[in-house]
Inverse folding.
């Protein structure tokens, strides 16, 4: 149980296009999901907190107009990278807050984005 | 704001030996949680161990145990009988109840056969 999936696992896009990444909780409902960014050999950097039915809360320095987050259902959150540029190339990881215990998160397998 | 510091970018240990990974944190909260996550080459984050700050007893999970020193704000991870499959990045993390988790920079652990 407690599985989080991400789709796609790897995506390549051209500069200037938009890319959508999906994060799904497969066997539980998640009112809160988190989006992280991880550069090579670095730690996870929290980008935003996504709450079902409301606007996402972005961390300082994260462009909300560039990284659009939608949490339309209790099992799905999406991250759309708009007008992507090569510097947006990174590994994006989502997680879902556990409904079973305090402050536990279940992580997705990540999505590798390459912008040409 | 919470901060998490891991001062060892890389460590190596001989297979079957014991290794300790260090972590210090800072928080103004009284109710918080501490974690160690493992990230193998697949990059899937795996929860290794979790400690609730209000519990004085150190958490253990099979070969993994922590030394939680609340006053010193220290939270080290001990891996006993190291195995080749333990090779990975290990992240120390802290979070408040129902809040976001902040990660340290990580320690890359090498297991020497």
């Amino acid at each position: 149980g407690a599985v989080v999936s991400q789709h796609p696992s790897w995506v390549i896009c051209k500069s200037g296009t938009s890319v959508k990444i999906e994060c799904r909780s497969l066997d539980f409902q998640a009112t809160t999901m988190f989006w992280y960014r991880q550069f090579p050999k670095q730690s996870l950097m929290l980008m935003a907190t996504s709450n079902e039915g409301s606007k996402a809360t972005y961390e300082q320095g994260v462009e909300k107009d560039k990284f659009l987050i939608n949490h339309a259902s209790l099992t799905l959150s999406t991250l759309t990278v708009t007008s992507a540029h090569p510097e947006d190339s990174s590994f994006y990881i989502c997680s879902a807050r556990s409904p079973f215990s305090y402050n536990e998160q279940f992580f997705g397998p990540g999505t590798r984005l390459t912008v040409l | 704001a919470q901060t998490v510091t891991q001062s060892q970018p890389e460590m190596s240990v001989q297979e079957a030996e014991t290794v300790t990974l260090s972590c210090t944190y800072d928080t103004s909260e009284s109710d918080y949680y501490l974690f160690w996550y493992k990230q193998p080459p697949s990059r899937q984050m795996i929860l290794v161990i979790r400690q609730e700050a209000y519990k004085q007893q150190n958490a253990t999970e099979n070969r993994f145990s922590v030394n939680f020193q609340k006053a010193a704000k220290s939270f080290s991870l001990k891996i006993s009988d190291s195995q080749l499959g333990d090779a990975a990045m290990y992240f120390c993390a802290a979070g408040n109840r129902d809040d976001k988790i902040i990660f340290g920079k990580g320690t890359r652990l090498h297991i020497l056969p």
